[in-house]
Amino acid sequence: MITITVIGSGNVAWHLIKQFAQNPLMHLKQHAGRREQQDDSFKAFGVPYTTINDLEPTDLTIIAVNDTAIAEVSHAIPYTGQLVVHTSGSMTMDILSPKNNRGVFYPLQTFSKSVPLEFKKIPICIEAIASTDVNMLKKVAFALSENAHEINTISRKKLHLAAVFANNFTNHCYTIAQQLCQEEDLPFELLHELITETAKKAITHYPDQTQTGPAKRGDQQVLETQEKTLSNAAHKIVYSTLSKAITTFYGKKL
Amino acid sequence: MITITVIGSGNVAWHLIKQFAQNPLMHLKQHAGRREQQDDSFKAFGVPYTTINDLEPTDLTIIAVNDTAIAEVSHAIPYTGQLVVHTSGSMTMDILSPKNNRGVFYPLQTFSKSVPLEFKKIPICIEAIASTDVNMLKKVAFALSENAHEINTISRKKLHLAAVFANNFTNHCYTIAQQLCQEEDLPFELLHELITETAKKAITHYPDQTQTGPAKRGDQQVLETQEKTLSNAAHKIVYSTLSKAITTFYGKKL
Q1: d(Cα A248, Cα A188) in Å, to the nearest integer?
Q2: Which of A114, A174, A242 has its CB closest to that of B202?
Q3: Which member of A109, A172, A199 has the closest CB to residue B199?
Q4: Is B166 on the interface with A (CB under 8 A)?
Q5: What is the pLDDT of residue A71?
Q6: A219 in contact with B, Cβ within 8 Å
Q7: Is A50 helix (H, G, I), strand (E, B) or coil?
Q8: The predicted structure's pLDDT at residue A113
């Protein structure tokens, strides 16, 4: 039985603890955070809480905190010689204190405590130096997901950046669409089917094969009219930048 | 029984004909196009094909062609005094020839012949001047979908623009993510769960409530590092524009 510690009180920590707490193959021994008291949202999992200073050694320690706090937290861990990983897509292993063996356990998904997830489909990207550490991370990752991969730092950073486009930027495009609906008192629900279908198409086909719209067609007249229709300067900039990116990508001249 | 003509050989025409051909409440009398011969993809529906000049009057004529061809096609229709509509999100009714009654029948979805759709959920935006015309369009729209709405030109144009953000721009963000994966020989499939979840969250919650990532947090260090990681100049511009749009939207200063 692999013993595990999770450090952190955010969305990733919450989802990992939820998974480990109900997994018969893993023993989630303790939960730690920078606060004196455990956040209420974690209480239902029944995992003992401690401050980082009072942690006891476990086979694996997962630091699931903001990128900027990882180094400090890893230094505060009171034991040495164990495997300690972070869950960040964009950070190297080297930011972790060298007093423990270092690694990465990056679940590639958007996490909110309030939104349930089918965890077994989530890709988990693992990285470590020693093969025994890689093997342990594989065992833990496959206990949670069918979709575990050993991915090096450069590839993981690129993948994280791809995720920024596929999630953060996509979601902001949805947000602008939502605002445009609000401007006309139209329910955002009118766009639900389109959003679902667009995502579905990107998965059943490849997105570069299913691009449509005035920018793809190089329809300058519609592009100019639509940009003028936008009253919000921030929307205009996103509109013109993405339209130009699309026309260029598909070799259209305006 | 309402008699219907569909003009056009593209994706929207194909999906409308597929729906009408199997609908017991509607009589799809004829299919017309600018070509002499019917495109092979329409043959299976068994609807008689003619050129536009040879069309016979029907209660409703739906022009499902590119925005730039609508006016010309509407003028080429040999009859007068019937209801003729286009399917464009971004065009007024006025571009249609005034020799027939004018209207709009805009299905808000992304259409490809190769991708099956659950048509009854697709919002159909209708518009016409006379109430008898509006009523006929409602009847036709509700025969295909549970989701028909009377929406005026200004609102429809704004909705179409919202759809450009929710579909065209989102899909190009997926495409850039796909390219970034290719650069590292990573399978695009690694992002499937994230894409699905991001779309699902935008529907179960509102997108402005679920934004995450470095731009939302105003994390300048990660933003600078990520932008540097991008080797493609076109990707860099999309990255910086959308990151700035997000930081501004959420009131973060860099």
Answers
A1: 30
A2: A174
A3: A199
A4: yes
A5: 97
A6: yes
A7: strand
A8: 87
In the numeric block, which tokens belong to residue A34?
């920078």
Hey, what are B237's tokens?
């511009």
Place of tokens 């060298």: A98
Q: Quick one: pLDDT band at residue B114, thresholds 50, 70, 90?
A: confident
B180 with A158: Cβ contact below 8 A: yes
Taking residues A84-107, report their average pLDDT. 97
A152 and chain B in contact, CB less than 8 A: no
What ipTM was estimated for this complex?
A: 0.94
d(CA B25, CA B16) in angstroms, rounded, equals 14
Percent of chain A surpassing pLDDT 70 = 100
The closest of A114, A123, A86, A94 to A18, measured between CA atoms, is: A114
Residue A18 has pLDDT above 80, yes or no: yes
By the 10 Å C-beta count (0-12 exposed, 13-18 middle, 19+ buried), A53 is classed as exposed
Tell me the shortest Cα–Cα distance from A101 to chain B, in angstroms.
Answer: 25
CB A55 within 8 A of CB A77: yes
Kind and range of the H or E run holding A15:
helix A11-21
C-alpha pair distances (Å), B78 with each of B29, B37, B54, B84: 16, 19, 7, 12
Give the CA radius of gyration of chain B.
22
Neighbours of B35 (CB within 10 A): 10
The closest alpha carbon to A51, from A15, A18, A97, A7, belongs to A7
Mean pLDDT confidence for B167-181: 98
Classified as helix, coil or strand, A61 is: strand
pLDDT, chain B, mean: 95
Q: Which of B108, B231, B239, B230 is nearest to B162 (CA)?
A: B108
Within 8 A by CB and 6+ apart from A253, the residues are A218, A247
CA distance A111 to B212: 9
Cβ atoms within 10 Å, residue B32: 26
Length of chain B: 254
Which phi and psi angles does B195 have, rounded to 5°?
Answer: -60, -45
Q: Is B250 on the interface with A (CB under 8 A)?
A: no
User: Which residues 6+ apart lie within 8 Å of B13 measured at CB?
Assistant: B6, B7, B31, B33, B42, B64, B65
Strands B101-107 and B124-128: antiparallel
Helical (H) or strand (E) element with A141: helix A131-144
- Listed in sequence order, the DSSP H helices in B121-253 are 131-144, 153-163, 170-183, 192-204, 214-217, 220-229, 233-249
Residue listed under structure tokens 């015309």: B133
Q: DSSP assignment, residue B76?
A: H
Q: How far is B245 from chain A (nearest CA, A)?
A: 6
Phi, psi of A65, rounded to the nearest 5 degrees: -130, 170
Nearest C-alpha neighbor of A236 from the set B165, B232, B98: B165
* Chain B nearest C-alpha distance from A64 (Å): 15
The stretch A57-74 carries a mean pLDDT of: 96
